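Quick one - first record:
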Amino acid sequence: MPGIGELAALATAVLWSFTGIQFTFAGRRVGSPAVNRMRLAIAVFYLSLAHLVLNGQWWPLDASRQQWFWLGLSGIVGLAIGDAFLFQAYVTIGPRRAAVIMTTVPVMSTVLAWLWFGEVLSAAELLAMSLTLFGVAWVVSERRNNRSRVSFTGDEDRRVYLIGVLLALGGAAGQSLGLLLSKKGLEGGFPPLSATVIRMVVATAAIWLVTLLRGRAPATIQALRDRRALVLIAAGAFTGPF
């Protein structure tokens, strides 16, 4: 069907804009680390249920070890690490600027694909990348008014804002590398839904293992008592990762 890809991309952008707002409000209530841990666990349930309905099994049992490796590594880099940076950026500089900085994901992905796979960049692609970077730099450098959770002044304000920008760039880099790694796992026509389940499962296992080792599990579970935050996280996990 003509234009179906463009419509899907537009719908994805709209849904992710809602997701960013939901995770921002939740992060301001319970902290961005707790949001990332809980939304991954909730997203695993959503995706596994969808996989059961569509494929008759909770997990992609037919996936090879190589697919588990590449997709799992993609999940850790993109979903556990990259999104941890992104969610903290939401809280620090707000969802609008963080979302603008995340538009560098295609640029980073293109550069990584050029370095890793030797893909050739056309003049049009180079121009598009330049325009994207110019637009991001313009928005990031404009004057700010109460974009973060807490008001700062002077050098402290600039330092916090710079940290927020770097966090958003870290989130973009994580997603870019995660997408590139997932391409290896999708080779051979592996179903995208099954691939997403693997990415989510491994990312969730990794982040909760680190949480347990660092003794942060009780604090995360305590955050579940904030019903408003839990509703926001569940809604964000549905409109975003799911």
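second record:
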Amino acid sequence: TVSSHKGNIKRKIKTHNKQVIYHVVRLTDNVTNGIFVNMR
């Protein structure tokens, strides 16, 4: 059915967004840590 298919797509997008946010947070952590180390 179409409605269940749409639900599956939404669920996939949600998990994908969580992964992207997780990677962005890790990237910013690494960048800020690198900047602090360089500034000292």
